Amino acid sequence: MKREIVRKTYKTTNLMAKRRELKKEIHRIFDAILWECILTSCIKADVDKEKLAQIEVKTLEHYCDLLCRVSHTQPGEVKVFYKKLRADMAKATSEIFEEISNLHS
Fold it and tell me: What is the mean pLDDT of residues 75-88?
């Protein structure tokens, strides 16, 4: 009886640990993007501030969307769900960094 409780606890703890690590990864990535926006506005005087503000808003929208999706995992096809989530995160970050780099040029 005691072993089954330990096994069940380990499985749920392991799943939650992965979710927590994914949330931390999302936080680190989007934090870096926001810092890039802040540094761009401080260093470059000729940067369009409105476009930079739009990029910051877009970054925060993607951040909130991804965190909500991680918090409310769809039951059933968990691997497919997380694979799509990571693909969407990679796509969003590459688009945002591309927009920031276009502001530099």
Answer: 86
Q: Are 96 and 33 in contact (CB under 8 A)?
A: yes
- CA separation for the pair 58, 52 (Å, rounded): 10
Dist CA 37 CA 88 (whole Å): 21
- pLDDT tens for residues 49-81? 899 999 999 999 999 999 999 988 878 888 888
Q: Which pTM was predicted?
A: 0.77
Rounded CA gap, 61 and 55, in Å? 10
